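retry 2 of 3: previous attempt timed out while embedding succinic acid. Reduced batch size to 1 and resubmitted. Inputs unchanged:
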Amino acid sequence: MEQLSQEQLKEFDEKGFLFFPSLFETAEMESLTSQLDDLFALDIVCNLREKGKKAVRTNWAAHNYNSAFARLSRHPRMIKPVEQLFDEGVYMHQFKVNAKAAFDGDVWQWHQDFGTWHADDLMPEPRAMNIAIFLDDVNEHNGPLMFIPGSHKQGVLEAGHDTETTSYPLWTLDPKTISSLVREGGIVSPKGRAGSMILFHSCLVHASGSNLSPWDRKAVYLSLCAVSNHIKRFKRPGYIAGREFAPIECLPDDCLVQDYEVSLPWSDGIPTEELQGI
Ligand code: SIN
Ligand code: MN
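retry 2 succeeded.
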């Protein structure tokens, strides 16, 4: 799957997301999941912990210092559909693994990603897309993503900067707005095996609850931005809002199970200039 069909394009336009159950095979997923204990054990700023806890909430930018995730960041099954939607090359605005750990995984409040990218990073237009791959099986108990289908058609909604609820500041939407959107579109949660993929619009309103189950819900997210739409402000550190705007060059489709050479620019440590805002 590298190109979206006419039906998929129509569904994406209507709902604001597409779900691809079990798109990646077990061996491909193991090349990634085998890296996670080591990644989460790193004592680096790129491991953001849950508020008041040791559990990692988000690991940032592993594509710059881990070979398996670097190869994933150039995977044609993830990059090509987004190039097709924007009809141009894309760069990595954000690369993260959200751990949503068993018992400890905290909420993600209702938000639109483009709201934050626009407000914080001065990304001009919502010409950026999220692609998520489940690294664990996702079920109704372990904090699946919740989408409001069709909400991407609202454009950017008014949001407030929530710096309190979790360890990660986010521009969030108020309950009144969410209630009215849900009356219109309902809520859906794509669920499925590890290796399933979701593509979703950067204005799609989404959230996830806490994970009180005994099952982790790790997922990796690529936020891909059209090259011509790159951010204009570098207030956030480079490991959260990427500053490398060259178009991503894809590797062959078997890049998770074959050891292609990839550059790892941060393998000797995160450069000082990427650690803070400018
Ligand atoms: C996000 O909204 O960026 C992440 C939400 C989640 O991982 O549940
Ligand atoms: Mn989000």
